[in-house]
Specification:
10% strand, mainly alpha, Arc Repressor Mutant, subunit A, DNA-binding, homodimer
Chain lengths: 116, 116
DNA sequence: CCAAGTACCTTGTATCACAAAGTACCTTAC
DNA sequence: GTAAGGTACTTTGTGATACAAGGTACTTGG
């Protein structure tokens, strides 16, 4: 058990949430997503992103279309579906509740330190 | 793919963090932890908690001692180790960074909605 | 033609939460 | 003293997922 693995575990499921968020704003392809996740300091590699996109598509949360590129191979541009939007709403609520719960735990520890 | 599973995945690794936090405050046994997690609205079941405690102990982050109970079988009271405290500090930093990253993504979506 | 860059895909591994079923100890009531 | 019920801890098997590593395919420029 090391801290790197703990970080990986902590991020589980949250990537899915972030990807849905990004795609909900408009058409994007994988490299766009990687850029945004990187700038938000959420490191992801291709081997994680592509299977995740395929899962979301197979579940009906996303759709894509091929678009020719003027500088390289064609790209898959993703859009979110109606089902995907509903799912995103649910995940957003889960995220809010989860962070509130964690902060409850953290703040209780802080309160204890202060009173000691 | 359903929302329940997404919630499970989102919580991965975060339980570990919360457990370390709770134990860092002083000696507790499993039922104490379950009570606190429940009151923080983080649902956990025995089949999740006990293996987690064993993992943390085997990694040297926790220690325990048996304590006789006046009303039932003996209990394992856990305390955090020096290594566990260091680990907790690292996880706390990871949690803060992670929530900031996610909020960056979320707020960017909100900003887009507002400007539209 | 071929080297380099871009984009997408696949396989195998390690890890984890959970359900479900099981083991063991203690107290109470008869 | 023993049966029943509650408390506490444990184990096994399943499904899901992030990641590393390697692979396929298309395009452009020399």
């Amino acid at each position: 058990m090391n801290i790197e693995n703990a970080q990986v575990q902590m991020r589980k499921g949250i990537l899915e949430f972030c990807i849905l968020h990004i795609i909900s704003r408009g058409e994007v392809y994988a490299s766009d997503m990687l850029d945004e996740l990187t700038s938000a300091k959420i490191m992801v590699v291709e081997g994680t992103l592509y299977p995740l996109l395929t899962r979301l598509k197979n579940s009906g949360l996303l759709e894509y279309k091929w678009v020719e590129s003027s500088s390289g191979p064609p790209r898959k541009y993703y859009v979110i579906t109606e089902t995907g939007l509903e799912f995103l709403t649910g995940m957003q609520a889960t995220w809010v509740e989860l962070s509130e719960s964690v902060n409850t735990i953290i703040h209780k520890t802080e309160a204890l330190k202060t009173s000691a």
